[in-house]
Specification:
It contains 5 helices and no strands.
């Protein structure tokens, strides 16, 4: 999948069943978070930077790696 240098939005990723499955597998709490709808315009890079304080870097890198394989 072309992540456009991590500038792809979460909305675009969540609209694709394959990439949505990656999030559900790797970061299930994000897939169920109440602000999910409001976060549709957040880029993957912004999410990575934001989550760095709460989620281990390996988890975030795993998501990005899996998305690139799609």
């Amino acid at each position: 999948m072309d992540l456009r240098n991590n500038q792809i939005t979460l909305g675009e990723l969540w609209d694709d069943p394959r990439s949505r499955a990656v999030f559900q597998k790797r970061i299930p709490m994000l897939a169920k978070h109440p602000v999910k709808g409001a976060a549709r315009t957040v880029t993957l890079e912004q999410l990575r930077d934001f989550m760095a304080g709460w989620v281990p870097g390996m988890m975030i890198n795993g998501v990005i790696s899996d998305l690139k394989k799609l």
